[in-house]
Amino acid sequence: MPPLSTRITSLNAGGGDGWEIFYKARALRAAGVAVTELTIGEPDVRTEAPILAEMHRAATAGHTGYAVVPGIPALRDAIAARVTERTGVATSRDNVLVTPGGQSALFAAHMAACNPGDAALMVEPHYVTYPGTIRAAGAIPHGIETRPEHSFFPDAAEVRRRARETGAAALLVNSPNNPTGAVYPRSVLEGLAAAARDEDFWLISDEVYDTQIWEGEHLSPRALPGMAERTMVIGSLSKSHAMTGSRIGWLIAPEPAIAVLIDLATNTTYGVPGYIQDAALYALTADESLEPRVAAPFRRRRALAQEILAGQTIVGLVPSGGAMYLFLDIRATGLSGIAFADALLDAHRIAVMPGESFGPSAAGFLRVAMTIPDEAFAAALSTLTGFAARLSKAA
Ligand code: PMP
């Protein structure tokens, strides 16, 4: 065959894509082996029946043709109203692009912010797809390291220095954070916002976990002074409404950015299915108790995990403020996150994500998705800590 483009073959920069343990676990499962999967960030409850009923109603009523590309007006209005209410920043339909999931919005944001070859900063550890998404948009990812001893908060002075050094076009932040669970306080976001204003780059704020706050408060940096004009916000119904498979999310941006991003959508996705949008509109507007109901199991399991981990000293629990993961420090075992995750899967058929999948700052850590029923979750965690204790004795 003719050569493949370097753009497509270098998306993962020659390394793995970070999902290796996940694929290994899925292969074991396919081969009939029972595996406890604590890898992917997907609620264990399915999309609720009334949302599916609305999806079915909309589809059978004929909303199966091409939908308008930026999103149906009623959904754009509902998203704008939600953002206005939650952030206090006046937001209209013209600030909203409906996208097939937050992932597509991440790509769109970088396409809008970066020219080919531009540097794009991203706080690290980061969600697995960030570097590949930035490369897909033609930009070059640069990780801003964070440290456990600083609660995995980014340092604004470091961001400023790196932005100056690289001439970065954008900084990607994610609070509540996947994988660390960090929720950035106002002071951290103010520091980043000042850097963005002074160095003139876009702040791309991934807020897909904004309904999963366990401690502290969620603050959208778009609400800080002078930031609405240089912030793009990624939202999604995947985590908040257990709608991962529906592929429905949004991008909030200044009106001129949305105007050109509609061209991108026209030439790539050509919009989101109308019946999915109708279901999303229903999910966002019909039942206020839905979001807390979807978030409740994670809050409960987090408390359960705190109890289990308090009974031992080998595995450290990184204090988290939000999102559906535990971030565990397993450095006392002497193993890397990859080696530990691999050994745990081999020995106990429990699959967790190695920290290294999320960047070098997460080496020696594990991300554990709190996405199985409480009892099984508690049992898996006890097995994991017992395994770590045996490893640390052997070391
Ligand atoms: N951002 C973060 C931080 C995520 O964890 C995820 C999914 N795990 C996404 C974006 C993308 O989610 P989706 O495309 O399903 O909306």
UniProtKB/TrEMBL annotation:
Transmembrane segments: none annotated. One of its GO terms (biological process) is amino acid metabolic process. Keywords: Aminotransferase, Pyridoxal phosphate, Transferase. Coiled coil: none annotated. It catalyses: L-aspartate + 2-oxoglutarate = oxaloacetate + L-glutamate. GO terms for molecular function: L-aspartate:2-oxoglutarate aminotransferase activity; pyridoxal phosphate binding. Residues 35-382 form the Aminotransferase class I/classII large domain. Its cofactor is pyridoxal 5'-phosphate. Its EC number is 2.6.1.-. Belongs to the class-I pyridoxal-phosphate-dependent aminotransferase family. This is Aminotransferase. It comes from Alloyangia sp. H15. The lineage of its organism: Bacteria, Pseudomonadati, Pseudomonadota, Alphaproteobacteria, Rhodobacterales.
